[in-house]
């Protein structure tokens, strides 16, 4: 079979090429702009290290191939030379098994052939049956579904006809309004709903859309739904009403996207090497603590009391006097979160979390770690030939020496940045509000995803400039 991958003619204006699928806005210009952007993982442009986010494939030259493509596009007035982007092919491009566009073609099913109109009585019976089915299903909805467990993609996604009888699709509108286009009109609104500027949201959507799952909701709306849960910690019923879907679907989308984002966003929380740390180190560190590798601190979030007494005891924090979830955060001098631990019970000490979270494995001889007085990990770091920098202790009630006072003040001046990072982290209210017991299995994933999203905002220390 003749290949139909992007085969360009000199007579074609490449800048004007766009996907011919109904509702898809992928263009050659968007592809070119994406390739010129810097890749976060490799520090080079995507053209130098990564493949394009999509390609535009030209309609086959054979009569049969052309006929099948036009049938799939299902457009009344198709362009003379249609192109279709990679997102609409099962294999990402025309293949022997799937030569035609099949995915997300902008309509539910091909238009049915003309048939005799049903009588009014039969139509009424069918409507009554559908209403009864939806009512029956909604009455069996269980409360256990409550959180128990670029701009490159702008598609109007079609529903899978194989699941046409499911409740999730029954609750969708034939022409569903896109929630992200209604809510995210500018940076202010985007920051309020997602914690990200609008451009960062668009870039994130472009990166995460492949593999987003076959849910009857536009991928950008799926991403927005997930970010709104993280940013605002809305009730599931509230989210379901905003997106006009069932509560069960909201729960499934959130669970799927949380796992998906945790995998795809790992590169946004790197452990920086010595050269990178030095190159991005702010002047306030260069002046007094030029060898600092990271600043660490622990934070806690209130936790719903468990019925099990053992679990309640494991999560009780004597510092806060209530049950909490506790985790360790390590940031680079520039303000980038380099490490966040899994979630632990509030009873765990800073030393226990430092030992068991894997944080120590990142440290190398000659590194310097800055911490507060409560981190009693000097022996652990000494074994690894790592220096611990912390404020001086008063001895037997005696005042600090002038040298210790100056050092303590300087440490406090730079350590304030880790507190600012944690405050930014807790702008995601799911990390600030009391944690339901049934959300604890997901909480470590939530921590990692929120940390990566914070890093997308940029270096926090640069905000002072």
TrEMBL record:
Transmembrane spans: none
The residue ranges flagged as biased composition, category Low complexity, are 114-125
Matching entries from Pfam families are given as: DDE_Tnp_4, HTH_Tnp_4, THAP
Stretches the record annotates as Disordered = 99-144
Keyword set includes DNA-binding: yes
The record's InterPro entries line, in alphabetical order, gives: HARBI1_dom (IPR027806), THAP_Znf (IPR006612), Transposase_HTH_dom (IPR027805)
Give yes or no: UniProt keyword Repeat. no
Which stretches make up the THAP-type domain? 14-114
Q: Look up the record and name the cofactor or cofactors this protein needs.
A: a divalent metal cation
Q: Which UniProt keywords apply?
A: DNA-binding, Metal-binding, Zinc, Zinc-finger
The molecular function GO annotations come to: DNA binding; zinc ion binding
Q: What is this protein called?
A: THAP-type domain-containing protein
């Amino acid at each position: 079979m003749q290949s139909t991958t992007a085969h360009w003619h000199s007579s074609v204006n490449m800048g004007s090429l766009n996907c011919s699928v109904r509702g898809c806005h992928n263009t050659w210009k968007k592809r070119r702009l994406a390739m010129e952007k810097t890749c976060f993982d490799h520090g080079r442009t995507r053209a130098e290290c990564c493949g394009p986010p999509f390609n535009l494939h030209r309609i086959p030259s054979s009569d049969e191939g052309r006929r099948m493509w036009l049938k799939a596009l299902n457009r009344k007035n198709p362009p003379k030379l249609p192109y279709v982007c990679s997102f609409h092919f099962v294999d990402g491009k025309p293949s022997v098994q799937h030569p035609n566009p099949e995915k997300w073609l902008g309509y539910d099913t091909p238009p049915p052939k003309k048939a005799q109109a049903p009588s009014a009585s039969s139509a009424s019976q069918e409507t009554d049956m559908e209403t009864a089915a939806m009512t029956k299903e909604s009455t069996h909805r269980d409360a256990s579904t409550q959180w128990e467990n670029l701009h490159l993609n702008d598609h109007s996604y079609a529903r899978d006809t194989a699941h046409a009888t499911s409740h999730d699709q029954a609750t969708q509108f034939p022409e569903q309004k896109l929630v992200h286009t209604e809510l995210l009109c500018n940076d202010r609104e985007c920051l309020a709903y997602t914690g990200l500027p609008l451009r960062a949201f668009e870039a994130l959507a472009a990166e995460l859309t492949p593999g987003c799952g076959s849910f009857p909701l536009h991928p950008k709306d799926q991403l927005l739904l997930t970010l709104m849960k993280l940013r605002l910690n809305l009730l599931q019923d509230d989210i379901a009403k905003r997106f006009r879907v069932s509560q069960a679907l909201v729960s499934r989308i959130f669970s799927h996207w949380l796992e998906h984002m945790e995998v795809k966003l790992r590169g946004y929380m790197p452990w920086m090497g010595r050269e990178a740390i030095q190159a991005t180190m702010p002047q306030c560190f260069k002046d007094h603590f030029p060898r600092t590798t990271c600043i660490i601190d622990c934070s806690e979030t209130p936790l719903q009391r468990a019925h099990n007494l053992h679990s309640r005891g494991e999560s009780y924090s004597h510092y806060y006097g209530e049950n909490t979830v506790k985790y360790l955060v390590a940031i680079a001098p520039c303000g980038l979160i380099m490490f966040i631990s899994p979630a632990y019970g509030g009873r765990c000490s800073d030393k226990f979390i430092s030992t068991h979270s894997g944080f120590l494995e990142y440290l190398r001889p000659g590194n310097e770690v800055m911490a507060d007085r409560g981190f009693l990990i000097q022996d652990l770091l000494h074994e690894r030939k790592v220096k611990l920098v912390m404020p001086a202790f008063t001895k037997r009630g005696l005042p600090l020496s002038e040298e210790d006072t100056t050092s303590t003040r300087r440490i406090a001046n730079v350590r304030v940045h880790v507190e600012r990072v944690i405050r930014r982290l807790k702008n995601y209210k799911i990390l600030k509000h009391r944690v339901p017991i049934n959300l604890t299995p997901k909480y470590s994933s939530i921590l990692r995803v929120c940390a990566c999203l914070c890093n997308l905002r940029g270096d926090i220390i640069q905000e002072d400039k």
